[in-house]
Amino acid sequence: MNDTPDIDAKLEAIRDARAAKPVLDIVESYLRRLGASHILITGLPMPNRTIESLVHRLRWPDERNGGVERTQLQAHDDVLMLGLSGRRPAIRNLSTIDTTNSELLACLGDGAKIMIIPVDALKPFQAMVVGAGRQINVEPYDLASVEIVAAAAFRRLYDLGVVSDQRPGDLSARERHVLELTALGKTAHEIAELLDISQRTVHAHLQNASAKLNASNKTHTVVEALRYGQIDI
User: Tens of pLDDT along 128-185?
Assistant: First the structure.
């Protein structure tokens, strides 16, 4: 059911918030209204970086352990790849593969669904909002509405100084530019001429970007740069 006045009220409350907690409370309450029993609101780390400072809310009971809430999220948990692999909100039924490859998802047990809401309102910073549980019941409008609320929430957290639009491990502006040109098929010689730098410098930028993205070759570097929101083509 279209509930535009309610969404408008949430957005106004987010804009008026003077601290992070009420902003996060609004997002959590909306997810719970849609049936979520498990909540995650977090930034997404760059490769080989920690996630602790990026997690803003983790309400995640472990159904295997009497509902005791987890207090930590590992940066390598596969649940984070769900936020990196999509650009639009999605809902899915959890499979055995999901719960095997993610310690966080393993906490949910059988029959659970998960809502994944990627947030790229502060490019190149990336974030995700997750709601999961057995009672989730959402329509396409609900997913679109959560996406709007989540984006507004992270913009407000940025205005409040709680999050930055940069992450440790982000590529430099020049590294991004070199990779964008590489993705468009430019050779090192052509890039050097376009940017008025030496080919050796072009290769150095590519090597630095590859190291930051934990990539094995030039093509892999471009793919990972796209995945982590570092370049647009």
Answer: 999 999 999 899 899 999 999 999 999 999 999 999 988 999 999 999 999 999 999 9
Look-up: residue for tokens 């376009």? 194
Burial tier of 169 (Cβ tally within 10 Å: 0-12, 13-18, 19+): middle
- From CA 42, how far away is CA 23, in angstroms rounded? 13
Residue-wise pLDDT for 8-32, tens only, equals 999 999 999 999 999 999 999 999 9
According to DSSP, the β-strands at 55-59 and 125-133 are unpaired
Report the alpha-carbon distance of residue 229 to residue 176 in Å, rounded: 10
Q: Are 180 and 232 in contact (CB under 8 A)?
A: yes
Q: Is the peptide bond before 168 cis (omega within 30 degrees of 0)?
A: no
| Rounded-to-integer distance, Cα 81 and Cα 174, Å | 26
Q: Are residues 233 and 184 in contact, defined by beta-carbon separation less than 8 angstroms?
A: yes
Q: Which residues contact 72 (CB under 8 A, 6 or more apart)?
A: 52, 58
Instruction: Please say whether the dihedral angle defined by the alpha carbons of residues 156, 157, 160 and 163, taken in this order, is positive or negative.
Output: negative
State which H helix or E strand residue 61 sits in.
strand 61-62
* Separate counts of helices (H) and strands (E) for the chain: 10, 7
- Cα–Cα distance for residue pair 179/209, rounded to 1 Å: 8
Q: Is the pTM of this model over 0.85?
A: yes
- The SS3 assignment for 69 reads strand
